[in-house]
Amino acid sequence: MTQELRGMRVGILAADGVERVELDQPRGALQGAGAKTEIVSLHPGEIQARQFDLNAAGTFPVDRLVADASVDDYHALLLPGGTMNPDQLRMDRDAVQFVRDFMASGKPVASICHGPWTLAEADAVRGRRLTSWPSIRTDLRNAGAEVVADQEVVVDGQLVTSRGPADLPAFCAAVVEQFARAHHSMPG
To answer: Which stretches make up the DJ-1/PfpI domain (predicted)?
Structure first.
């Protein structure tokens, strides 16, 4: 494995109901490229993962509370999906502010499946081109996004998005590539 993300810290914002594969695979790709990842969430302890939203799929330990996290702590942000996960995040003031601040910082953000719901709540999709799971596309359009349905991965500046689990190979590759491009242009 290459180490193009060595020295990069990536926050993974997730809550109970996160789709396990959408957290595991991108995190593995990021760590394989040398990044350090931390799960940032709403409560301490562990978050419950799901498979296809319906089946329990184990837990992930929480590294930091979003209420205690700052954009300055991370070089990039990953927003995995699962229906319940972003639905909880978008109802939490600290989580929404964290995402809003990340988008305002210009640092890279990657989101898959239902993950862009939190971006919409943070008013961070207006004028952006992105993709998502089909059921939230109307929400994204109503929030001012240009939604693309027929691409595995859409890159719009700092933002990388994908439609769902079937797109994970392309998503993971694009995330590592875009995060590396941003990482190498960062000072220090």
So the answer is: 8-178
